[in-house]
Amino acid sequence: MIRISVDTTRCIGAGQCVLTAPEVFDQDDNGFVTVIDPEQADGPPEEVARLRTASVICPSQSITLHED
Amino acid sequence: MSSVESDPIPFMLRRKGEPFPPREYAEIRQQGGLIRAMLPTGVAVWLVTRHEEVRAVLTDPRISSNPAHEGFPSPGRTGGVPSATEVPGWFVALDQPEHGRFRKALIPEFTVRRIREMRPAIQEIVDGCIDAMLARGDTADLVADFALSVPSLVISSLLGVPNVDRDFFESKTRVLVTISSTDEQRDDASRQILRYLTRLIAIKTKRPGDDLISKLVVTGIMSPQELSGVAMLLLIAGHETTANNIALGVVTLLANPQWIGDDRAVEELLRFYSVADMVALRVAVEDVEIAGQLVKAGEGIVPLVAAANHDGTVFDRPDEFDPSRSAQQHVAFGYGMHQCLGQNLVRVEMEIAYRSLFARIPTLEIAQPLQDLPFKYDGVLFGLHALPVRW
Lengths: 68, 391
Description:
heterodimer, A: alpha+beta, Alpha-Beta Plaits, 3-stranded antiparallel β-sheet, 2 helices, 26% strand, B: alpha+beta, CATH 1.10.630.10, 6-stranded mixed β-sheet, 45% helix
């Protein structure tokens, strides 16, 4: 299980998470990150890889993954 | 911490390479952390060439984007970037919290969803440029006739420039990005564009439409003066950069036709060429240690994003063009809070441009040997001055 937390006070709305893992992230009307489902069960490896990439490339380092 | 003071290496604006990136970048990167270098202006700076350290520099709050600070590096011949005190609204030159006011107001207009909504308008612009090229005959300069026109028209549309003014707007913006323009012509074109934008803002204030300027007017977050600076900045930031990417991409895809029609080429092209290699200039405003090197307050820092994007510790076989790789970690758009606001728009412009060009002109070819093409080795931005093509 991976839990996702985002810091909307840091977010700069670049949307890179939305491009990378659109099944997990979205942008609200102001452009800030929202998480569609903050608790990701172990999905297919390519989905998990996309989630990790989204967290790594976030330009404001607003995405944290908590892995249990 | 390094205590050895070695002589700065000369850092030239002229980039050699076959065609890019320069071999020198790999040599500098292998030397380690930060490298002392001398700009053509005679000012010593720190060059940053590794991916990890470029990201560290671009996210450190003790490192500033404001050219008003003592020691801010200027690349020389361009005169460097203006500071926000010179052009109100020039928020790339601001640090937090001032920068945030502008960025926050603009984000809703550049979300992934908003850019997706612009696709039909972008497609129409691209088709129009291709129609015009085809109507003129069977040869063209793909830079002048296509790559520069598309982003200029897209920005016009985004800002809400009325159709009847687009020729004027395009002709003036063209002067800014043409190498043979004199400084006087450039200054004059800049003044005319700013005057035009000021008038446009006044019109949109009275009769708001569905465009970026109207929406920003309604929010009241910026003064009209700041708004014209912001509009000018969006134009400058999105015009030649996008054109360079489009033209370089066409050359690269024609040389690697197996990737034509594969949208993954866009991300790899962004990484591979990193056209805005030395745009993210910085200065330390406090003493800061990066990669074991003390950078003192007032010392300039030049992160080379093309070097970072060819860092072999992050990208396997970095000098190979390979769209099947995961290129997303690239820093071609910068990193941190100043990362390119228009990046999602550029991606869509590139994707639609390549798809449409190769679908509608399947016999497109370059009318000059590759090694003779006029690459912008000496520009602040990498790209092509011209690209003769035929079909």
